[in-house]
Specification:
The complex is a heterodimer of chains A (155) and B (249). The longest helix of chain A has 26 residues. With 155 residues, chain A is an alpha+beta fold. Chain A has a five-stranded mixed β-barrel. In chain A, β5 and β6 form a beta hairpin. In chain A, 29% of the residues lie in helices and 26% in strands. Chain A has four helices and six strands. Chain B has ten helices and no strands. In chain B, α2 runs antiparallel to α8, α4 crosses α6 and α4 packs antiparallel against α8. Helix content of chain B is 77%, strand content 0%. At the A-B interface, α1, β6 and α4 of A face α3 and α7 of B.
């Protein structure tokens, strides 16, 4: 083995070891790396208890209700399996819509209602002109819900 | 076989080649960016969900792709520099670092201005954004380490090792939206599925990506020439160059 082959072998081994170490660390911190918890995780008590966390899902169709004389809004966040009611006082982002993704930060109240202090809209990875969107909506009129995390998965 | 490859590994033979190639890449970048911006900002329709705010994508996505790709290229040159002990490989890595840092900054900055109207916040500590911020610090760290070591050959080694260690971050950035729940949406364009985007938007995005490639290559070639002149200033081949002779005489 020439010296430079030996050096390349060391570089290769170093990269492999680093990669494995990084994978193990990321795996260990898995729960801290998620930005939000889904309603199923919240119901399953996987979300942190007694402190603030973020909840993410779709705003359930027909669930949005605004207070007549304040900025308080109520809506339900769903992952199509479980649903959590959310109450929030403040301005909603422009892209906040029923049937679209949302991430809310706050605490779970004793009554099971999520009291949000901040609401962010989570838009999806699809880009299309309004005409195409209309055609698509007419085609599957309420039959399917847009998936929350369909991230480039070929299936 | 491998012998003629090493010919181009000599700064003396690469310097004139880089000088001849740089203007072509720069011209291609300018032309592609003009057409790409025109299609992206004028021809392409607005987005059904986001309105015109989505057009930031034509800067944001090429810059973000480039920020990751330049780092991988830097890691490649760093591995060659450590393995073969070639000066030019380390110089190439050195030449790429500022452009990579610029691309990372543009990706973060345009992302913030996209996030405000769409998500409702400039910044969130989700996995995609945090790992991209770490990438910026890695670029700045490599540049700082280079400037902190006086002996260029020792700086080559130290920077190469740091660059290779940091390469672990690149797949984390790319796959973060797949591995964890993030505020950042998933990939619109991937190697395994059809683009989830109207064709005219993909065209503009492709042109802007090629323009960014051309820009990065042109700037890296121009910068590597400056680095060669700086580091080889004692070499006799340099003093025979017409542009240097003009200065001396």
């Amino acid at each position: 083995m020439k010296p430079r082959h030996k050096r390349f072998a060391w570089i290769g081994a170093g990269i492999v070891v680093l990669g494995v170490a990084a994978a193990l660390v990321l795996n260990a911190f898995q729960s801290n790396l998620v930005f939000f918890f889904t309603p199923t995780q919240v119901v399953g008590l996987e979300a942190p208890q007694g402190r603030a966390f973020r909840i993410g899902g779709l705003v359930e169709n027909g669930s949005l209700a605004r207070d007549a004389d304040s900025l308080t809004v109520r809506f339900r966040v769903t992952d199509t399996a479980k649903t959590i009611p959310v109450v929030y006082t403040g301005l909603l982002p422009d892209l906040f819509r029923e049937g679209k993704g949302v991430v809310a930060q706050g605490k779970l109240g004793p009554d099971g209602t999520f009291r949000a202090t901040e609401v962010l809209a989570k838009h999806d990875e699809n880009y299309m002109p309004p005409e195409a969107k209309d055609a698509l909506d007419r085609a599957h009129k309420g039959m399917t819900m847009p998936s929350l995390q369909s991230q480039g998965d070929p299936r | 076989m491998a012998a003629h490859w090493f010919l181009y590994a000599s700064p003396a033979s690469f310097y004139p080649i880089a000088g001849r190639m740089a203007p072509w890449f720069a011209a291609a970048a300018a032309a592609l960016a003009l057409v790409g911006l025109w299609i992206g900002l004028v021809v392409a329709p607005t987005d059904a969900q986001q309105g015109d705010a989505y057009r930031i994508i034509f800067i944001h996505v090429p810059a973000a792709w480039m920020s990751m790709f330049i780092y991988l290229v830097m890691a490649f040159w760093s591995a060659l520099a450590l393995g073969y002990n070639t000066r030019l490989s380390a110089m190439m890595a050195q030449a790429l670092a500022p452009t990579g840092a610029l691309m990372t900054f543009i990706a973060l900055w345009t992302g913030a201005f996209w996030g405000r109207p769409t998500w409702g916040t400039y910044w969130a500590w989700d996995a995609r954004m945090t790992s991209e911020l770490i990438l910026l610090f890695l670029y700045l760290g490599v540049i700082a380490l280079r400037n902190g070591i006086d002996d260029p050959r020792r700086a080559d080694k130290a920077c190469s090792v740091l660059t290779l260690v940091g390469a672990v971050n690149v797949p984390i950035i790319y796959f973060s939206v797949k591995w964890w729940n993030t505020l950042h949406q998933g990939s619109t364009i991937s190697m395994t599925a059809a683009p989830k985007m109207a064709a005219i938007m993909v065209t503009a995005l492709g042109l802007m990506t090629l323009a960014t490639w051309g820009y990065a290559i042109a700037v890296a070639l121009i910068r590597v020439r400056a680095i060669i002149v700086e580091r080889e200033r004692g070499a006799s081949w340099l003093s025979h160059l017409p542009e240097v002779r003009r200065l001396v005489v």
